[in-house]
Amino acid sequence: MNQLRRATCGELTSADEGSAALLKGWVNTTRDHGGLIFIDLRDRFGLTQVVVDPRSAPAAAEVAASLRSEDVIAAQGLVRRRPAGTENRKLATGEIEIAAESIDVLNRSKTPPFPIHDDSDVDEGLRLRYRYLDLRRPHLQRSIALRHRAVKAVRDYLDSRGFLEIETPMLIKQTPEGARDFLVPSRLHAGAFYALPQSPQLFKQLLMVGGFHRYFQIARCFRDEDTRADRQPEFTQIDLEMTFPTQEDVIEIMEGMLAHMFEAALGAKVATPFPRLSHAEALRRFGSDKPDLRFAMELHDVGPAFTGTEFKIFADALSRGNAILALAETGGASRSRRDMDALAALATTFGAKGLAWISLAPDGPKSSLPKSALTPQLVDSLKAQTKAQEGDAIYLLADERSLAQAIAGKLRLHIADERGMRDPKQFAFCWVLDFPLFERDEESQGLQPAHHPFTAPAPGSEALSGDPLQLRAQHYDVVLNGMELGSGSIRIHDPALQRKIFTLLGYSDDDVERKFGFLLEAFEYGAPPHGGIALGVDRIILLMAGGESIREVIAFPKNQRFQDLMINAPTPVEPAALKELHVRTDIPPPRT
Ligand code: ASP
Q1: All domains of the chain, ordered by start, with CATH?
Q2: Ligand 1: does its nearest atom lie under 6 Å from the Cβ of 356?
Q3: 418-423 long-range CB contacts below 8 Å, 24 or more apart?
Q4: Is 293 in the pocket of ligand 1 (CB under 6 A)?
Q5: In this structure, which residue's CA is closest to atom 7 in ligand 1?
Q6: Which tens digits make up the pLDDT trace of 368-424?
Q7: Residue 214: exposed, middle, or buried by beta-carbon count in 10 A (0-12, 13-18, 19+)?
Q8: Atom 3, ligand 1: which residue's CA is nearest?
Q9: What does DSSP assign to residue 379?
């Protein structure tokens, strides 16, 4: 008697021919072919075909005839080769089938609200409501497994580089990462609240003061931001911190980690070191501090070519000190005038006042510029600067420099999308360095940190003298395919310097004591120089998977309005629960 082999639905091959196997899984599909019943049995490892012959296994056939998709069964029988010509080369198990001797129903399924056996388009609300069924579908099975492999690779790599994985608390107080906090009322301390961490920032710095040398955590972070297309109120970061690093040390570890992660999880080779750009250079050349380097199409400052132009709008722009930026599209001359108008209309949605274009058609340039302004010298000089040739198009934008850069940056991405130049299978990493230490807060007009207030000034900026907006920081961002994967910095470890930064940012002494007194105190006890970085796991997996939304790489995401449609959260709570928490609200509970 053959020993019974317990197998997954993805592992049996012709090498197992003749063995007796027991498989458990979900009924993917069933078919009745001339009396024989075929069941495709599924689990996360694959599909195996089970064949039930009513002549040899009448009891099994009776059960099989009652099966419906998503029933859970155990099937037992002999592994045999499929008849010649009926093999399925797309399946790892496609050479064999199980000749069923018995079928047991372990549980029945209602008809699912959408098909499980394929990735057909289904309303996302329905998918989120029945997420446990959505998770069974091939696409999510793949991306969640990919996420596991990627995170495991991170753990392995960081472990090999001397990092310890350490958990930091969830019930804490405000972390200044620039978003709103989620608050948790304390029952034991009436009127007091915890905040959920926006990041483990302060704790990881304290771990360095605590002598742990190198720390990391796959850390859940919470940020109560306004709902935006692809945001989640809770997300995961690879968070790390090192003692005594230079910026170069952090960069080297990150490049090694990312290369290992992409290789181990995806089999993709990532070339290191990554290209580096300064913050100013990224804006100047690509119109973004997270440039997509999969393609060139750089921005050009063509203001000087328009000196003395007849085109009044550009002449005025120059006289006001604004910039004129150009972008050349290879093959752009094939666009119709209507197409050009559509592009100009799009540019206005990005904030442009208009978009001028020159089409370098074979029968001579055509343009939205007035004829008198389109001199041969102008065309020659624009061609020389942008390297545009016959058949290409040149787009021109005039505005205050940073605005013009931002608009041109968006246009660049749009055109690249249209032309299929953003291949999801290509991975173009880069570092953006030399960030400013502070930015102007548009609302309050006060200073705000470009990263966070714990970022150390760059060498030369430590004295914090002169125009604060000109100060540079030891802050670095790693970018992939136009998405910021993460930010980090060398931190301040000198309590006096940290106090000075807080003061510049407008914190009162009282505020500083209340919010960060513990940190400043810790810095008085031999705090070592330290620095680190945090990378968004959801984004990395999204780029690895080539997907469209981070909801595709999170097992149980919230929808775009930050609701969980499956468990129905958030929901009002009983008045008694509020009372116990010392919370009174005069807002009537929403109707559910
Ligand atoms: N705490 C920062 C963040 O979450 C990352 C860092 O500076 O290490 O963006």
Answers
A1: 4-107 (2.40.50.140), 141-277+429-553 (3.30.930.10), 295-418 (3.30.1360.30)
A2: no
A3: 419/329, 419/331, 421/294, 421/295, 421/297, 422/292, 422/294, 422/295, 422/481, 422/482, 423/294
A4: no
A5: 488
A6: 999 999 999 999 999 999 999 999 999 999 999 999 999 999 999 999 999 999 999
A7: buried
A8: 534
A9: H
